[in-house]
């Protein structure tokens, strides 16, 4: 059925993935500067000293320069490690040492700290395909972050990292989808 949210999500993800894949190197470089500047501002303004962030893959919003800044400024950073059971483990890292994880995504190398350590962070930065005007996050379809965020008793602020054209009027939502508190784009920090 065409109106099934999972089918609509699948089609939207394909469109967004293609849009990311075709961005030019100049667009990516400019976006990276904006992402880095706005992530630094978010962390500084929130007073966060312990954050969770992901290692960006090739076509994702680039987190690498921000992670270098965080490391240089003493911001402790947790990185997600995908498990085969659909949950996330975590490790602390420098944002440089990495290996290929499940699904071919970059993951940090480090001591596994287990899934509960995420409860200690001050701020969570998550990947997203898109986010809508009410904070509904469209992930990439595996549900890792939705499960993690949905299981937290006291969740700190959660911000998704997206390109400006991925902040949409609406995205399909299913019962398991967890909203975010805001987005960081190359040009803005938007809190819902």
UniProtKB/TrEMBL annotation:
One of its GO terms (biological process) is tetrahydrofolate interconversion. Substrate binds at residues 55, 60. The keyword Magnesium applies. GO terms for molecular function: 5-formyltetrahydrofolate cyclo-ligase activity; ATP binding; metal ion binding. It catalyses: (6S)-5-formyl-5,6,7,8-tetrahydrofolate + ATP = (6R)-5,10-methenyltetrahydrofolate + ADP + phosphate. Its cofactor is Mg(2+). Keywords: ATP-binding, Ligase, Magnesium, Metal-binding, Nucleotide-binding. Pfam families: 5-FTHF_cyc-lig. ATP binds at residues 9-13. Its EC number is 6.3.3.2. Belongs to the 5-formyltetrahydrofolate cyclo-ligase family. This is 5-formyltetrahydrofolate cyclo-ligase.
